[in-house]
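Appendix C. Worked example: Aromatic amino acid permease
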Amino acid sequence: MEKSPSLVGGSCIIASVCVGAGMLGLPSSGAGAWTVWSILAISVTMIVMTISGWMLLESFKHYDLKVSFNSVTKDLLGNKVNFFNNLTVYFVGGILLYAYITSSGLILQELTGMSSQLASILFVAVFSLFVWHSTRAVDRISVVLIAFMVLSFVFGVSGMAINVDVAVLLDVANPERQYAPYAMAMLPVALTSFGYHHSVSSMRAYYGEERKAKYAILGGTIIALALYCFWLISIFGNLPRHEFGPVIEQGGNVDVLLKQLDGVIASESISKAINAFSMAAILSSFIGVGLGVFDFLADFFKFDDTKAGRTKCWLVTFLPPLVMSLLFPFGFIVAIGYAGAAATVWACIVPALLAMKSRTLTGGNQGFMAPGGNAMIGAVIIFGVLTALFHFLAMAGKLPSFIG
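Step 2, the predicted output written as structure tokens:
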């Protein structure tokens, strides 16, 4: 009898899908809300995103284990909803690639002195080749990058955690203490940091049932939340709130955040470890997201798996975000915010609609069901709509904006 995969393994897969370059945007987007309200915002987001993943899992129970998010959405909600859902999946992938290309160019500019545009072109030319070559090449480089990320994160962030100043962490020097209004604008970035939903069908197939997949999803989002809290406490306990001004002015760009951190971290080795972690996080996310978009477009355009077919797919995957990055190098937080607003469609609204439709089918109220009944479905949809709305209100200057 074959042994069932462990919950620890599945939880780590979900956590690794969540944790990536998106976490680099959390400190800048949460600077206004600061420690308590930022942690509250990401905790609420984690709960909603876990439940929305379970709703997706619930809708899959009527289908074969090999079923995909795409085919279930098409079957239950129709071609038009599925097309719009796919469009948002592509948009999120494209905007994330754009954010990673822009940030890597700026970081490499700091390290090498070459122009950020040339650095971005070289970054894409070298590292997108892993995606063009094969999934196996991505698998191998990802293992190396994740191991490197873990080591640099443990060394760098634990070094910062030891030096946390409680007065800085709690913003004692600030007489105003207005934090709550700024938490709303943080939600789109927080949502991007829990985007694992394209892996739900893989988890179900991995375990062969919904119940174990449910606990693996929960375990993964708890691990991600713990890492995000540790990261925010380490940053906010070292870099005073008012020193986020230059970072926010530059659109939350990672290179500016790293430069500000260099000024407050006494140890050069800790500073180098944080820089190494940031670059590894951007690189591993770039390759992971790049592969997802590449496979999505290969299926969409029906490119064949030959050198010519993969080259065509490479062009439509990496060229548009690279050109956009060179022409319009927006800030990291701006790009991640747009990704979060679009991701509300496939990470909140569509999973809730799928669960609602699933419950009307024969046997819909039997077997695995996400908790909270129809009230929870409504709550997840409202959270998704509000998160997208907060992003656009923030962009229009209608929400309180922290400028340092």
